[in-house]
Amino acid sequence: QQQQQQQQQQYLLAQGDTRIVPTWRLKERMKTVGVGMILALNVGTDPPDVEKPNPCAKLQCWIDPTTMSRSKARERIGERLEGQYARWQQRSKLRYRRAVDPTVEDVRSLCVTMRRRAKNERLLLHYNGHGVPRPTIDGEIYVFDKDHTHFIPQSVLDLRRWIGKPVLMVLDCGGAGVLMPYLTGDLDVMLQQQQQLQQQQQQQQQQGLRPHSSSVNAALDGPAGSTVISSPGLVPMPMPATPPRQQRRSFGNGMDVMGGIGGGGALTGTSRMVGESESAYAARTVRDTLVLCPTSPGELLPLGPELPADLFTSCLTTPIPIALRWFVRQNPLSRASLLDASRVDSIPGKINDRKTPLGELNWIFTAITDTIAWNVLPSPLFQRLFRQDLIVASMFRNFLLADRILRNLNCTPMSHPALPPTHDHPLWRAWDLAVETCLDQLMMDGVLVDAEATQSTPPNVAATSDGDGAADSDADGSGGGGGAAAGGDAQQQQVASAAAAAEPAQASTMKQSATAPFFAEQLTAFEIWLQFAFLRL
Q1: How far apart are CA 173 and CA 61, in angstroms?
Q2: Which contacts (CB < 8 Å, 24+ apart) does range 402-407 have?
Q3: d(Cα 521, Cα 517) in Å, to the nearest integer?
Q4: Cα–Cα–Cα angle for 164, 165, 170, nearest 5°?
Q5: 368-425 pLDDT, tens per residue?
Q6: d(Cα 391, Cα 75) in Å, to the nearest integer?
Q7: What is the DSSP string of 395-464?
Q8: For residue 258, what is the DSSP state?
């Protein structure tokens, strides 16, 4: 398509037509129409292969599940995650389906139903594995049996077969990178290899031989004849006879789970073929399976109590709150460090209203992450990821933030197609400067106050305690700004209407406080570059 546009442009130039045919705008559009959520939360029970510190991260979708019953926590987390995804595509509603602490059949039903309704459109499949063991080198994630007493492996090859393509997979779990070859390789070839391996294992079991497994799997296998035990907090129950593909897998602490087939050999992912153009590779990759995951093989998720437990999900679905918290914690010399990190939630405005501080920050964040991606990616891949599908563009923009934060926490996020590291890109300094400018202005206006002022002053009073903020309220409120009202009736009327005018006055203050100099500074810098760039030629 790009070659055709270039040929058309050359033809027009040869005919004396100086019109320029844009090559950056894709005619082919795609749309994500549904979001499926597989949430293996297992609230109140830690997975057997992770020893969590005390205290540790608890928040899931900004909800503390320990403050409510397990059933209510599961429901509220699922609803909140739906809302977090919904804000990224507001013009057309997404279809949602979620399976909380699901069985294999629940997962299959979710995937098959969503693909049947989506037809050839893209789906987003979100997997939260915080309550189950990490994925295995055999390409398996864990779900539950119908009694929720044991962990059951679920092959991601089956997951790919059920969900179809195109699909964007978000895997929020430790060691998620181990699944990358199984998610990006040739599905038909891998299913055939899996079937052959199962037949070999069946033959070995019929002959009384131990099924072959890799050295890593052999180290994880428990002693023969031991009982499969459930995760902590669940009542151990005898398991029925397992299929040949399922073997026991011990985690060294007395907790066993149902393991999968051995032979976790390296599988070749989809890569650029010899002689394949960049645009053809980008089109083929984006129309198949896109993958985002927070950790490489063998890495654990961050567990610090100052961060949410689903840090990766928070970066993808609520980037501004997590980016502001990260800035406050990482910049002790900034005036914003006087704020408690949770105070950034008090920034006024709406995320989709650019005239408010929160909306202005979101606009700046979008501009910076888009520019970073444009600088580091080949043009065809950038167009496919950031200009074709609204949900895909948002997720990959926010993935750049996840890459910045997680790499500072000793994690290495992975994606398909692979993006180069951007955590140290110079433009992140522009984002830090914009955040510091905004927070400093809001603190000067009295909209945000430090922890000590918050304890002594109610939030609604703190928002207008500064002289400038009070002046703004008077200027846009119901009372006159220049002099005192004449007579007691006028004063009573002013006081009575103050409560009714509180929200409009606050909105006006928000708009006047949202004067970020970021875009003006960028245009000035561009103007200077145009003026003096020829000197460097």
Answers
A1: 14
A2: 402/294, 402/311, 402/312, 402/315, 402/316, 404/428, 405/311, 405/315, 405/322, 405/326, 406/294, 406/295, 406/302, 406/311, 406/312, 406/315
A3: 6
A4: 95
A5: 999 999 999 998 899 989 988 999 999 999 999 999 999 999 999 999 999 999 999 9
A6: 24
A7: HHHHHHHHHHHHHTTT---EEES-----TT-THHHHHHHHHHHHHHHHHHTTSS--HHHHHHS-HHHHTT
A8: E
How far is 417 from 114, CA to CA, in rounded Å? 24
Exposure string over 98-127, b if 16+ CB within 10 A, otherwise e:
bbbbbbbebbbebbeebbeebeeebbbbbb
Amino acid letter for position 310: D
Nearest to 45 by CA among 126, 145, 133, 136: 133
Is the four-CA dihedral 7, 8, 9, 15 of positive or negative sign? Answer: positive
Q: To which H or E segment does residue 168 belong?
A: strand 167-172
The string of DSSP letters for 59-118 reads -BTTB-GGGS-HHHHHHHHHHHHHHHHHTT--SSPPEEEEEES--HHHHHHHHHHHHHHH
pLDDT tier at 5 (50, 70, 90 boundaries)? low
What is the CB neighbour count within 10 angstroms for residue 404? 22
3-state secondary structure of 126: strand
Residue 293 contacts residue 175 (beta carbons within 8 Å): no
Give the highest mean pLDDT range of 241-250, 283-292, 376-385.
Answer: 376-385
* AA letter at 447: V
What's the rounded Cα separation, in Å, for the pair 282 and 407?
A: 26
d(CA 204, CA 503): 74
Peptide bond into 294 cis (omega under 30): no
**CA neighbor of 24 nearest in space, from 377, 456, 510, 434:** 377
d(CA 57, CA 67): 14
